[in-house]
Amino acid sequence: MVKIRDIELGEFPLLLAPMEDVSDPPFRALCKKHGADLMYTEFISSEGLIRDAAKSVQKMDIYEYERPVGIQIFGYDIESMREATRIIEKTNPDIIDINFGCPVKKVTCKGAGAGMLQDIPKLIRMTDAIVKETNLPVTVKTRLGWDNESKFVVSTSEKLQDVGVEAISIHGRTRVQLYKGDADWTLIGEVKNNPRMRIPIFGNGDIDTPEKAVEYKNRYGVDGIMIGRASIGYPWIFKEVKHYMATGEHLPSPGVKERVEAAIQHLEMSVKWKGETLGIAEMKRHYTNYFKGIAHFKEYRMKLVTSFDLKEIKEILDFVSENENQFEFV
Predict the structure, then answer these.
(1) Do residues 117 and 146 touch, judged by C-beta distance below 8 A?
(2) In CATH, what is the architecture of 3-247?
(3) Do the beta carbons of residue 48 and residue 72 sit within 8 Å?
(4) CB–CB of 228/27 below 8 Å?
(5) 102 tagged catalytic
(6) How far is it, in rounded angstroms, from Cα 58 to Cα 17?
(7) Are 4 and 37 in contact (CB under 8 A)?
(8) Is pLDDT of 330 > 80?
(9) Which of 16, 22, 174, 319 has its CA 20 to 30 Å from the CA of residue 59?
(10) Residue-wise pLDDT tens digits, 80-109
(11) CA-to-CA distance for 31 and 301, rounded, in angstroms?
């Protein structure tokens, strides 16, 4: 049984990666429904929380059905991160996660996210301060290093454990790589198999099929796998991986009707959480993924991404569902 302190996650947990503008409550609800064992919020700016910025505050929304769920924060100033930790603790998440992995330039240029990988001593001091500030378990999401010359994840993980971090998720790329090339899990395996390490180590990067999940589990010995981009528009990935691990067999892929049902649930929850205008607008990025691989769907996809009328969008989706036999997968 994999545990983060007293939070039981199962024998081999599957985690939903925190993704900006993706892993919000509507999307997390679908991933939970389809088997995600632990989920994190989108990353939240410590400075935004301190300023009481509406978007940062809203990102802290969590619901009972999501548990266990962690709130992820990022920042470059240690005192601001401590203050943000105090604010987050009041919302009663199960875990606080620190983002040392975001490679986006507007984050890293301030020394936050993966930018912190350029100053490991400060990264450790910040983590230590956050652990001491809260009674909640603290976890970390990070990368192999800043670039090929600074892949210090093995020694950094030891230091993170020493200051009280209770689990680490490692993306198998450097910051310089962004999301290009193949993720290298070799160092993730070294962290996990380091005899000094006692805490759960989760691997992240390029897991997009059940076969790959099983292969990497067996090859690198990680305690669980974090799935990010492969889940966008395809929350079924979690239960498909679990079924394959248990049986060695594939679940049938979701059909058109099931995809429409998921898209409608996602849309309705998005509108309820964000309001109609923003909820509709932010759903547009998901339609391509929900209906990927369906022949002759371009006309309907264009209608979905150009309409701002909730009734019209639902009518399009209902039409697709009712006429599922005219669509086929390629």
Answers:
(1) yes
(2) Alpha-Beta Barrel (3.20)
(3) no
(4) no
(5) yes
(6) 19
(7) no
(8) no
(9) 174
(10) 999 999 999 999 999 999 999 888 898 998
(11) 23
168 backbone dihedrals φ, ψ, rounded to 5°: -130, 130
pTM of the entire structure? Answer: 0.93
**Taking every pair of C-alpha atoms in the chain, what is the biggest distance, in angstroms?**
59
Residue 55 in contact with residue 24, Cβ under 8 Å? no
Q: CATH 1.10.1200 occupies which residues in the chain?
A: 256-326
Q: How far apart are CA 119 and CA 198, in angstroms?
A: 24
Convert the pLDDT of each residue in 170-197 to its tens digit.
Answer: 999 999 888 888 889 999 999 999 999 9
Residue with tokens 């929850």: 269
Structure token pair of residue 30: 């679908």
Specify whether the CB–CB gap between 215 and 189 falls below 8 A: no
pLDDT digits (tens, 9 = 90+) for 98-151: 999 888 898 998 989 999 999 999 999 999 999 999 999 999 999 999 988 889
pLDDT, position 99:
96
Tokens representing residue 301 in the block: 């996809």
Question: In this structure, is the dihedral angle defined by the CA atoms of residues 59, 60, 63 and 69, taken in order, positive or negative?
Answer: positive
CATH (residue range 256-326): 1.10.1200
Collapsed DSSP state (helix, strand, coil) of residue 105: helix
> Looking at 69, 102, 199, 313, which residue is catalytic?
102
Rounded Cα distance between 106 and 123, Å, is: 18
